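We modelled the chain as a single entity of 434 amino acids. Its sequence is:
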Amino acid sequence: MRSLAMLKPVKSILQSVALLLLGNGLLNTLLTLRGTDEGFSSAVLGIIMSGYFVGFICGTWVSGRLIRRIGHIRTFGFCASICASVALLHLIFVNPWVWLPLRVVYGLSFITLITVIESWLNSQAASHERGRIFAVYMVVNLGALATAQQLLRLSSTQGFLLFVVIAILISWALLPITLTRRVQPTIPERPKSSLKALLGFAPLAVASAALSGLAMGAFWSMTPVYATQLGFDIGGVGLVMSVAIIGGALLQIPIGRFSDKHDRPRVMTWVVLLAALIAAGMPFAPSHEVLLGLYFIWGGLAFSLYPLAVAQLIDQLHPDEIVSGSADMLVMHGAGCAVAPIAAGSLMTAVGSQGLPIYIACVFTLLGLYAIYRRRHVTALITHTAHFEPMVQSSAGALEMIFDDTQRDLFDDPSFYEEDERERLAGIFKPSNS
């Protein structure tokens, strides 16, 4: 009963986000499959799919301004209408060079929708309940993305039905949030970038955000092509995507909690190297069933990397740096996602379908080697141990929901901040004895 009471203020928001992500998750996979059916090469598909992440990054800069200008509900209605119409425009204009700007516009509008949702969730949840609200939000998020892949079974990718379903779902997402009588929150100014400082004292966290984006962007964009070329039918493609997402949903928490109690950089190193090893083993999977098992484990490891990077960053931040720091991490992750489809698609065009797991294995191996180098040569300045929270790429406002009053009180303890602020921001590290 208490949990239900906790969710009552945000029920309409969670309903809207479930419908929105059902439509978005279906569209992202459908476009890749439809493009493959239309004869688009892997390289061209990679360029098209990168447009979404380019729009996503641009949207992180303009969404706040739009919300402050016309309010949350009007912004949500405005951007949801754009997303629904853009989904249908993909069906009307089946041309790769038309799809590219459509993906940019869609990505920009979608991150604005997510910013509206997460800032509203943050304002409606009591401070001591934000952590639990965020956990429920992530369950809805990942559950909707996994379920969306199964909607591919409704019809052929060559028809119009799936595009219409997407437009309907996104349009329906307007209903719960526009019917709410709750007061719209205010959104703060975007924090000033601190990326230069972050690179000075938390380069491993920043590198992990960027390189995990290089891998996950390839997963979201090119896995449907990879599965199709391996002989999976449309239902099988949805199953591959769902299995990886479910693995990410189920394994993130145990991996993250383990990292809370042990040396987090060491945990990150093992996670990324294991993910690289599993990706490298995918070309040798003897059957589709074995490949699905590998994707489940890989998803659990790969989906953990971005939240591990965020937790590693927060380990080294003062409370007043968290919002700007998390915003910069989001941009770095998005930049990696934007480059990934082009790089992975080009490699797949050159060497075949197995270019995707080879590409992912190489990216994760590079990150693993860098993590080993950092651990052996540099000791990071850890101010406190943050609590891991599962997450996917979203808006910077999501980080606000992670911290409850207890955590904030811990951050206020001056004993955590023994290192002089000016030295820390200058990027001075203590040499490691190892």
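As a brief sanity check on the tokenised model: Strands lie at 378-379, 430-431. The first helix runs from residue 2 to 7.
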